[in-house]
Write a structure and sequence with these properties.
The protein is an alpha+beta fold. Strands 1-3-2 form a 3-stranded antiparallel beta sheet. The longest helix has 13 residues. 18% of the residues are buried.
């Protein structure tokens, strides 16, 4: 991931509803959720949620596909991985023991 892509992704996540939607979709991998269910779960009007989902999709953080009358959204875990690696790639100036607590906290959830 390059700096511009990271800025775009972080900008998309720098809004409460979009961050909540992304985290919700990460929890619902690999199946994803229909847009209406995301809006309902977050108590956001559907048209507002559509705008937020579009912003996350443009930032490369979500993928969508149409299933009949619904659009199913899924978190792009590859993009999440790339963003996370971009942020921590040079962690602790090459001293892995300093990053050990971060890695240890991530391992149980993944």
């Amino acid at each position: 991931m390059d700096t511009d892509s990271a800025i775009t992704a972080l900008s998309a996540l720098a809004q409460g509803t979009r961050l909540d939607a992304f985290r919700l979709l990460v929890r619902h991998e690999p199946d994803g959720l229909p847009a209406g269910e995301i809006a309902k779960a977050l108590d956001v009007p559907q048209n507002t949620m559509s705008a937020h989902l579009a912003a996350l999709t443009r930032a490369g953080l979500l993928r969508s596909e149409r299933h009949s009358r619904s659009i199913i959204y899924r978190a792009d875990l590859g993009a999440l991985r790339a963003l996370t690696l971009f942020l921590v790639k040079d962690c602790c100036a090459g001293k892995p023991e300093l990053c050990a607590p971060l890695v240890a906290e991530l391992v149980p959830c993944c």
